[in-house]
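Notes from the 1:1 (GR / supervisor)

We went over the backlog. Supervisor wanted to see one worked example end to end before approving the batch request, so GR pasted a single chain during the call. The sequence is below; no edits were made to it. Supervisor asked that the structure be written out right there so they could see what the output format looks like.
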Amino acid sequence: MIFVTVGTQGRFDRLIRTVDEWAGLRGKTDVFAQTGLSSYCPTHLRAEPFMSPTEFRKRVELASFVIAHAGMGSIITALELGKQIIVMPRLKNLGEHRNDHQVATAKRFAEQGRILAAFNEQELFDKLDHLEMLNKTERLSAEASPHLIVTIRTFIETGRIIMSESNSSAEASMWRAPMLRKEW
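Structure output shown during the call:
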């Protein structure tokens, strides 16, 4: 089953319409969508506007793939459960959100290889056509790593981030704040 979710903040007709058209053209009957406030009524998908957090998680668990807006809840849940996810961010210029933070989220997670991102309808359609060829996603742990816990605890207690020399510069730049001293 393919699970589509648009979250709970406003309409995202563009995503629902694209997946609905794809399902109709490809004869897909195993697609379920959480449509939120969308005004578009799908004809080729089973759909509900909203569901409880428990039902949402169960749908993700049962899904072979997740198609979603670039909301953190949707992304993190899919990654925690080891599900391949394709995200299409809501766009400010189309009135789908108040700013383009979902574009930044999609780009960042895609750069890390955690998700696939489609930035327009054609890209989403193309990615949907290749679902079977997509690699499985590595599960994201629901627990914080010991290194992260120590780093955060140290920062809270001292205001400093202490990093080992083995940390990559990318990881270092991710945790470095301009007002903090880097200690070795």
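Supervisor's comment: Residues 146-183 form one domain.
Batch request approved.
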